[in-house]
C-alpha cells in the first residue's frame, strides 16, 4: 500500500508532464470528478463500462442542482409540483402544498443526465475510455504509479493497462476500486424498478405528480414510488432486510397504485444495489471513493444523485488544489484534507439526521402512519422542502420546532396505539 504524505510536507513537483488521474465510473460522481480534474489542469482518464446503460433510479434531483451543475432545462422530463404520500392504511397526504410558484422537483432519466455529464467532462479535456476495469495494482511507494487493467469496450476485447498517479473510484455500490484498497464491506439495499408506458389519458394524471407509498407490503424498511418521466412512469421499490422478496414488494406497489397504472406496458425492468451508509474507508493512499462507491446515499429519502455529483466535484477540485493545478504529486494526507475533511464537515450531520429519521419512522407500519400524518403539517412540509431543494439547514421557528417535536411524539404514541388495536382486530 502506498505510504501517505503528511499534511505538513510539500508535494513533490512533477517534471515534464501533468498529474495523471483515472476516474473509474462514468455516472454523476465520476463525470463530475473528471470534469473538475480536467478543467483544473490534471490529465484525466474517465473509464465507463456501458455509456448507453442506465442505473435504476427514481431520477429526482433538487432545484439547487440545476443551477449549481448547470443542468440544461431541456434535459428535464417533468417538473413535479405535486407530491402525494400514502400510508400503510392508504391515508393520502398532499405533500406539495407549500411549494412556491417557481419551485419544483426535476425528474430526469439517468441515461440522459449521465450522458450529458460525461460529454461535458470530455469537453473539459477528460479522455473517455469505454472499457471494463478488471484490476487495480496498488504501488508500494509514494512515487510509484497505480496501474489500471481493463478490457477494451470495442469488439476486439483486447486487454490494456495504463499507469496513473491518482485514482477516483466512482464505480458504484459494488466498487472494484473499494475492494482493491480494502475499504471493507457494508450494508446495501436492492432497488427494483419497472418503466411503464401508460395510455395518454393516464399519463396526463402524472403530468406534474409524483407518488410515494409506505408500508410493510411495499417495503419493510424503505418506500415505493411512482415517478413521472417523459413518456412513462417509473414504478419501483427497495429494501435492505428482505432482498429475496423484492419482486413481491414490486407486485404490491403495482397493486397499491392500482387503476392509475393499469393497462400500461412495461418497457424496461431494472435492478441495482444501493449503499446504505458511508464506507468506513473512503481514502487510502492516493485513491479516493466518491458517490455510491463511498456510500453517499441518504437514508429515509434514498437520495443519491446530488450527493454523487457533489462528492465527485469536491474530490476533483480538492486534487486540483493539492496538486497546484496538476503540477505536483499528492498523497493520502492531501486527499484527506482537501476532500474528505471538507465533505464530512459539510454533510455528515445531514446523513446522521436522515439515518435517525429512518430508524424512527420506517420500523413499523404504526410509525409509518405517524410519518404520513406529520407530513400533512405545512410547517413540516416547508422545512422539508427548504432542506431538500436547496441542500441547506432550514432556519425554523423555535416555537414551531417545539410544536413539531410535540406533534411527532404524539403521532408516534397515537399511531402505535391504533396499530396495536388494528393488529388485535385482524387477529
UniProtKB/TrEMBL annotation:
Gene3D superfamilies: FAD/NAD(P)-binding domain. Pathway: Cofactor biosynthesis; tocopherol biosynthesis; Porphyrin-containing compound metabolism; chlorophyll biosynthesis. The keyword tRNA-binding does not apply. Residues 203-267 form the Digeranylgeranylglycerophospholipid reductase catalytic domain. It catalyses: phytyl diphosphate + 3 NADP(+) = geranylgeranyl diphosphate + 3 NADPH + 3 H(+). One of its GO terms (biological process) is chlorophyll biosynthetic process. It comes from the Eukaryota. GO terms for cellular component: chloroplast thylakoid membrane. It is an enzyme of class 1 (oxidoreductase). One of its GO terms (molecular function) is geranylgeranyl reductase activity. Its EC number is 1.3.1.83. Keywords: Chlorophyll biosynthesis, NADP, Oxidoreductase, Photosynthesis. Catalyzes the reduction of geranylgeranyl diphosphate to phytyl diphosphate, providing phytol for both tocopherol and chlorophyll synthesis. Belongs to the geranylgeranyl reductase family. ChlP subfamily. This is Geranylgeranyl diphosphate reductase, chloroplastic.
Amino acid at each position: 500500500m502506498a505510504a501517505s504524505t503528511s499534511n505538513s510536507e510539500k508535494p513533490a513537483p512533477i517534471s515534464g508532464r501533468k498529474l495523471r488521474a483515472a476516474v473509474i465510473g462514468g455516472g454523476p460522481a465520476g463525470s463530475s470528478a473528471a470534469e473538475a480534474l480536467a478543467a483544473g489542469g490534471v490529465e484525466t482518464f474517465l473509464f465507463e463500462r456501458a455509456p448507453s446503460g442506465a442505473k435504476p433510479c427514481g431520477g429526482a434531483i433538487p432545484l439547487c442542482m440545476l443551477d449549481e451543475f448547470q443542468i440544461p432545462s431541456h434535459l428535464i422530463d417533468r417538473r413535479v409540483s405535486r407530491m402525494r404520500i400514502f400510508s400503510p392504511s392508504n391515508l393520502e397526504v398532499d405533500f406539495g402544498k407549500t411549494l412556491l410558484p417557481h419551485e419544483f422537483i426535476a425528474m430526469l432519466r439517468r441515461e440522459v443526465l449521465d450522458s450529458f455529464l460525461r460529454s461535458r467532462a470530455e469537453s473539459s479535456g477528460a479522455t473517455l475510455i469505454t472499457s471494463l476495469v478488471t484490476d487495480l495494482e496498488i504501488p508500494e511507494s509514494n512515487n510509484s504509479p497505480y496501474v489500471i487493467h481493463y478490457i477494451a469496450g470495442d469488439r476486439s476485447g483486447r486487454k490494456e493497462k495504463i499507469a496513473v498517479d491518482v485514482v477516483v473510484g466512482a464505480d458504484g455500490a459494488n466498487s472494484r476500486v473499494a475492494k482493491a484498497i480494502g475499504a471493507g464491506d457494508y450494508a446495501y439495499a436492492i432497488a427494483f424498478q419497472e418503466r411503464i408506458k401508460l395510455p395518454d389519458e393516464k399519463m396526463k394524471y402524472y403530468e406534474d405528480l409524483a407518488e410515494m407509498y409506505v408500508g410493510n407490503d411495499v417495503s419493510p424498511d424503505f418506500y415505493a414510488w411512482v415517478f413521472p418521466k417523459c413518456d412513462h412512469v417509473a414504478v419501483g421499490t427497495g429494501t435492505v432486510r428482505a432482498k429475496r422478496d423484492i419482486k413481491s414488494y414490486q407486485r404490491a406497489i403495482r397493486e397499491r397504485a392500482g387503476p392509475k397504472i393499469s393497462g400500461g406496458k412495461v418497457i424496461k425492468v431494472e435492478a441495482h444495489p444501493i449503499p446504505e451508509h458511508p464506507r468506513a474507508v473512503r481514502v487510502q493512499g492516493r485513491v479516493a471513493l466518491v458517490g455510491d462507491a463511498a456510500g453517499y446515499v441518504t437514508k429515509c429519502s434514498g437520495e443519491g444523485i446530488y450527493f454523487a455529483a457533489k462528492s465527485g466535484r469536491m474530490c476533483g477540485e480538492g486534487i486540483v488544489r493539492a496538486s497546484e493545478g496538476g503540477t505536483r504529486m499528492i498523497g493520502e494526507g492531501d486527499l484527506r484534507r482537501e476532500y474528505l475533511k471538507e465533505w464530512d464537515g459539510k454533510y455528515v450531520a445531514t446523513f446522521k439526521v436522515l439515518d435517525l429519521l429512518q430508524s424512527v419512522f420506517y420500523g413499523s407500519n404504526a410509525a409509518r402512519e405517524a410519518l404520513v400524518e406529520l407530513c400533512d403539517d405545512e410547517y413540516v412540509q416547508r422545512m422539508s422542502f427548504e432542506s431538500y431543494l436547496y441542500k441547506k439547514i432550514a432556519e425554523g421557528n423555535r416555537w414551531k420546532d417545539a410544536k413539531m417535536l410535540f406533534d411527532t411524539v404524539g403521532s408516534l404514541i397515537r399511531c402505535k396505539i391504533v396499530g396495536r388495536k388494528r393488529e388485535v382486530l385482524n387477529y
